[in-house]
């Protein structure tokens, strides 16, 4: 999975952009949101849509790193 370039920490991704970057469906994203820690923090806008900051995306991605076996 090619995640480069990582999002600029000062930008916000829409759910569609986030899903495209990870090559997952929106259904998968919303399922992950139901499991604590499985998805990055999402900010809810007044219109109800969600945004993921580049900073939160990068921090979440770092938590998924594991040592090579």
TrEMBL record:
Organism in which the protein naturally occurs: Saccharothrix espanaensis (strain ATCC 51144 / DSM 44229 / JCM 9112 / NBRC 15066 / NRRL 15764)
Protein name per the record: Helix-turn-helix domain-containing protein
Database matches in Pfam families: HTH_17
Annotated Helix-turn-helix domain residues: 12-63
